[in-house]
């Protein structure tokens, strides 16, 4: 083994490794607990001492997707024997399914608003980032700062006038309103990040294309966009995650038709008190996609959280 | 230190931005300190002055 | 010519139109590209901002649209800036802000330092540590209330296991003294990876040659740490601190789900107080002035942040 002053010794590496792994285990414990609670039965979820080993149950997921009512003897008789496995699970708790819950809708709203705003944001953001990267835009630094500062603003403070404006325009509690709002909030991130990515593409490629008789638009489409593909993809995932996670605007500006999942999940309650397995099931379905995206993004995380300033 | 004052006199960006930053920071500290309510009352004026100043002086030459 | 759809589209474009597109100067293309973004930001940010400033000088209330709106001058600002209750929310915010930053910087830097030892599998563990930061604060905050339950909560159980206290004897979110720490712990859990990632970038930006030179000068490891590592990482740390500072100054989602501002007003951070004034008491004029104060503060901090950002960029 070659000796290097900057390379840590084997023993140091072991100690560092053990400490970091220890921290990692502590830090994912709450997440594992969420996922585990989703598969517990009601009594198991609130058992003391907390149950680490338990019999898995789909009660949480059934309760998440259905509305139930506490069943009396008469009602059970009237309804006849349970027809499906989820009926059975509901009966076992002494309840009868009265219909689907609103979780599905809320989840779908999150998907529509998330993808809608991301698409719009990438369209506008890529164009603006290209212009900021390649052309002399008057007051460029001021505009870039202005764009960034829009993201820093406290959402509650912004929500007051947005609420008034949306009410005037009839955009309160609509998908379109939320898509436009999230696009505006995410534009700052996408412009800053994409500008960084496009800055890294050598200008010579485009110049060569222009000399070959391409127009600016063609050069943009055929030379710059393919080169920036990874950058665009990771920026899009960042925008999607933000829109997916956003809570403050959603809770203030939506109540019914366009409500997304984050304001909805905490309101899930059972027929008697808080139904933690159902909440955990809802949270699991909502959080796991983001974890998957995080793994995809791991190379670009740093860029994303620093608006493209730190590149590693 | 004399370089700093010279920069201020010549309306250079660096030292003026420093002054504005210090004002903003002072304003934020005044806003949240638990000691004296009078400081809290005047914090906003200080932060506002610092912020406006920052916008102006960031256009001074380097 | 190749046969990609774009080429076909280009060939299919009528000649006069094609000439016009080709004829577009870079300057006009720049405007076409930038304008939609600027327009949307003006409509969704600047226009409302101006509206807020205007409302902040009135006693307008959204829930009474037919009432005559009066200009009250600076009275809203005066009331907010002399109100001990609002001042108290600022102090609650300060407690939250200072402790989260201290803890996150200490733990985040330590983790980054350890990960930078490049033990086997460090990439995998870094990704696992980063998870909490990417998740929805509201959903996670809601679940932390479950972890904090006396008796049945995992957090209470673990603390009780190590200290021997009765897990039902304390309630992290029900106790006036513990609640401010409950939100600090949850936020630290969530955002330490952020500080860690930035510190890691700082550590990796230090060229090996500097350490090698120090080694030749027989500088001790301890000395190297304080004279090379810390100063070189400092700009990155500044960036992380400023960003966390701004984010936690306007903290809303995590805390509102965790404690809802209670018990009493012990965890009523500024944003939560503002939300009550604006969307529960509907004092629109008053809360607009409140919002303007927050705007200016954040805008000021953001200016310093961008300065720090440029400093790091030069590295």
TrEMBL record, chain A:
Q: Name one GO cellular component term.
A: plasma membrane
UniProt entry tagged with the keyword Cell membrane? yes
List residues traversing the bilayer.
Answer: 12-36, 107-131, 143-166, 178-198, 219-244, 276-297
| ABC transmembrane type-1 domain residues | 107-297
**Biological-process GO terms, alphabetical:** transmembrane transport
Spell out the family assignment given in the record's similarity comment: Belongs to the binding-protein-dependent transport system permease family.
The protein's name: Carbohydrate ABC transporter membrane protein 2, CUT1 family
Q: Where is the organism placed in the taxonomic lineage, from the top? A: Bacteria, Pseudomonadati, Pseudomonadota, Alphaproteobacteria, Rhodobacterales
From TrEMBL, chain B:
The keyword Membrane belongs to this UniProt entry's keyword annotation: yes
What keywords were assigned to this record?
Membrane, Transmembrane, Transmembrane helix
Report TM segments: 16-36, 42-60
Protein's name according to its UniProt entry: Uncharacterized protein
- Which species? Roseovarius litoreus
TrEMBL record, chain C:
Gene Ontology CC terms, in alphabetical order: plasma membrane
Which residue intervals define the domain ABC transmembrane type-1 in the entry?
90-305
Q: Which PROSITE patterns match?
A: ABC_TM1
Keyword terms of this UniProt record? Membrane, Transmembrane, Transmembrane helix, Transport
Q: Which residues cross the membrane?
A: 29-51, 96-115, 127-147, 178-203, 224-246, 288-306
Q: How does it sit in the membrane?
A: Multi-pass membrane protein
Instruction: Return any one Pfam family short name.
Output: BPD_transp_1
Compartments reported by the entry: Cell membrane
Q: Which InterPro entries match?
A: MalF_N, MetI-like, MetI-like_sf, Sugar_ABC_transporter
Top-level lineage group: Bacteria
Q: Which GO terms describe its biological process?
A: transmembrane transport
Q: Has keyword Disulfide bond?
A: no
Instruction: Give the record's family classification.
Output: Belongs to the binding-protein-dependent transport system permease family.
Q: Which PANTHER family match?
A: GLUCOSE IMPORT SYSTEM PERMEASE PROTEIN GLCT, TREHALOSE TRANSPORT SYSTEM PERMEASE PROTEIN SUGA
Spell out the protein name for this chain.
Carbohydrate ABC transporter membrane protein 1, CUT1 family
Organism for this UniProt entry? Roseovarius litoreus
């Amino acid at each position: 083994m070659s000796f290097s002053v900057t390379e840590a010794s084997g023993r140091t590496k072991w100690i560092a490794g053990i400490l970091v792994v220890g921290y990692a285990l502590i830090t994912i414990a709450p997440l594992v607990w969420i996922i585990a609670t989703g598969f517990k039965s009601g009594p198991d979820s609130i058992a003391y001492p907390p149950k680490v080993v338990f019999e898995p149950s789909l009660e949480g997921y059934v309760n998440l997707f259905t509305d139930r009512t506490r069943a009396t003897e008469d009602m059970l008789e009237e309804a006849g024997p349970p027809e499906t496995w989820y009926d059975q699970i509901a009966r076992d708790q002494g309840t009868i399914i009265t219909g689907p819950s609103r979780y599905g809708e809320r989840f779908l709203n999150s998907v529509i608003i998330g993808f809608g705003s991301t698409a719009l944001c990438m369209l506008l953001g890529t164009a603006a980032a290209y212009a900021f990267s390649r052309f002399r835009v008057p007051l460029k630094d001021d505009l870039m700062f202005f764009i960034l500062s829009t993201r820093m603003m406290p959402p509650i403070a912004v929500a007051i006038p947005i609420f008034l404006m949306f009410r005037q325009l009839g955009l309160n509690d609509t998908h379109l309103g939320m898509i436009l709002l999230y696009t505006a909030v995410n534009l700052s991130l996408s412009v800053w990040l994409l500008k960084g990515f496009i800055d890294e593409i050598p200008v010579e490629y485009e110049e060569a294309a222009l000399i070959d008789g391409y127009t600016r638009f063609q050069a943009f489409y055929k030379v710059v966009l393919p080169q920036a593909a990874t950058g665009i993809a990771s920026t899009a995932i960042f925008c999607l995650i933000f829109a997916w996670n956003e809570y403050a605007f959603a809770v203030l500006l939506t109540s019914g038709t366009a409500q997304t999942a984050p304001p909805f999940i905490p309101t899930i309650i059972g027929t008697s008190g808080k139904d933690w397995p159902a909440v955990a099931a809802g949270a699991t379905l909502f959080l796991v996609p983001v974890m998957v995206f995080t793994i995809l993004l791991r190379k670009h995380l740093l860029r994303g959280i620093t608006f493209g300033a730190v590149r590693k | 230190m004399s370089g700093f004052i010279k920069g201020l006199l010549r309306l250079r960006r660096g030292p003026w931005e420093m002054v504005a930053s210090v004002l903003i920071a002072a304003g934020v500290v005044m806003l949240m300190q638990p000691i004296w309510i009078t400081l809290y009352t005047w914090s906003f004026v200080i932060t506002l002055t610092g912020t406006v100043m920052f916008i102006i002086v960031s256009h001074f030459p380097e | 010519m190749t046969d990609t759809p774009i080429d076909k589209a280009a060939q299919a474009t009528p000649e006069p139109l094609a000439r016009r597109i080709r004829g577009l100067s870079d300057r006009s293309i720049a405007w076409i590209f930038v304008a939609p973004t600027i327009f949307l930001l003006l409509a969704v940010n600047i226009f409302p901002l101006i509206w807020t400033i205007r409302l902040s000088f009135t006693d307008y209330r959204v829930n009474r649209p037919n009432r005559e709106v009066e200009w009250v001058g600076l009275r809203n600002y005066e009331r907010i800036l002399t109100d001990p209750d609002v001042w108290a929310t600022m102090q609650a915010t300060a407690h939250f802000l200072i402790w989260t930053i201290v803890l996150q910087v200490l733990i985040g830097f330590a983790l980054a330092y350890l990960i930078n030892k490049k033990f086997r599998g460090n990439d995998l563990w870094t990704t696992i540590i980063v998870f909490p930061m990417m998740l929805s604060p509201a959903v996670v905050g809601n679940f932390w209330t479950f972890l904090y339950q006396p008796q049945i909560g995992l957090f209470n159980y673990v603390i009780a296991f190590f200290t021997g206290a009765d897990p039902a004897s304390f309630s992290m979110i029900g106790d006036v003294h513990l609640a401010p720490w409950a939100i600090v712990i949850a936020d630290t859990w969530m955002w330490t990876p952020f500080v860690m990632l930035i510190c890691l970038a700082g550590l990796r930006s230090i060229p090996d040659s500097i350490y090698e030179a120090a080694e030749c000068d027989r500088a001790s490891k301890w000395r190297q740490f304080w004279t090379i590592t810390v100063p070189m990482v400092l700009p990155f740390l500044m960036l992380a601190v400023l960003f966390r500072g701004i984010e936690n100054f306007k903290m809303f989602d995590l805390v509102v789900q965790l404690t809802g501002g209670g018990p009493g007003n012990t965890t009523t951070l500024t944003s939560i107080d503002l939300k009550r004034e604006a969307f529960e008491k509907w004092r629109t004029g008053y809360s607009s002035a409140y919002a303007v104060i927050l705007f200016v503060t954040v805008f000021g901090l953001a200016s310093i942040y961008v300065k720090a950002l440029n400093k790091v960029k030069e590295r």
